[in-house]
Task: inverse folding
């Protein structure tokens, strides 16, 4: 079992729709959770961080964390073609030293 | 804030030569920096963790004598690919973690290495 799992996609949504990206992790003691966006040929860019159960909103982005289910998600409202990218879920293990990245979900927003 | 730079952004070298890549945190101190490699259409692969003033910690399967890491200050880590071969051609990305902050990693723009 991979430590951080994401559906590789591609996830295709129409412009203006809500894109829902999901991630599960195996280390129950994980403390910190991150979503990064990576455009093709570029390095990852931090979108959101979340540390406690519940929802965290930042503009069109909402991160959701459920530690009991070991599940973290990212919702993108009013999706735009410019949101088309690979989204990486990252989880910091207990002890806070190593961050494990998922393989990423490719999102394609159709104009 | 939290800007990380890398130099060079792109390098082409001949097989057998060594290439040095610099990673700098521009507006914060980073006790810990990370080096990743990413092949086309594949996920990030952590190569090593660089700690200021101490030896780097390499991931399993990464040759420490081939990928030399030096983290001489709180704002600079370097990765040297020694005796580069075509199979080392890849996208090398560093990230830095703010000293004393949360575990957030901020990524540099990456260095694209092509070994001929």
Result:
């Amino acid at each position: 079992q991979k430590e951080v799992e994401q559906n590789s996609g591609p996830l295709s949504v129409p412009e203006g729709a809500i894109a829902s990206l999901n991630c599960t992790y195996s280390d129950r003691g994980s403390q910190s959770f991150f979503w990064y966006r990576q455009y093709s040929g570029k390095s990852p860019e931090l979108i959101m961080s979340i540390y406690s159960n519940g929802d965290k909103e930042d503009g069109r982005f909402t991160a959701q964390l459920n530690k009991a289910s070991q599940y973290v998600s990212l919702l993108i409202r009013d999706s735009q073609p410019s949101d088309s990218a690979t989204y990486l879920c990252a989880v910091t293990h207990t002890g806070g030293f190593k961050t494990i990245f998922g393989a990423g979900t490719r999102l394609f927003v159709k104009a | 804030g939290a800007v990380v730079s890398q130099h060079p952004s792109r390098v082409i070298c001949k097989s057998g030569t060594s290439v040095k890549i610099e990673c700098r945190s521009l507006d914060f101190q980073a006790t810990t920096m990370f080096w990743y490699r990413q092949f086309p259409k594949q996920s990030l692969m952590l190569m090593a963790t660089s700690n200021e003033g101490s030896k780097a910690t390499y991931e399993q399967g990464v040759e420490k004598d081939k990928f030399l890491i030096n983290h001489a200050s709180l704002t600079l880590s370097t990765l040297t690919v020694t005796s580069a071969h075509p199979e080392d051609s890849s996208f090398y990305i560093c990230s830095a973690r703010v000293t004393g902050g949360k575990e957030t990693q901020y990524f540099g723009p990456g260095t694209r290495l092509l070994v001929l």
Remarks:
- The interface with chain B takes residues 31-32, 34, 36, 41-46, 49, 51, 88, 90, 92, 96-99, 101-104 of chain A (CB under 8 Å).
- Chain A has a mean pLDDT of 93.
- The longest strand of chain A covers residues 85-92.
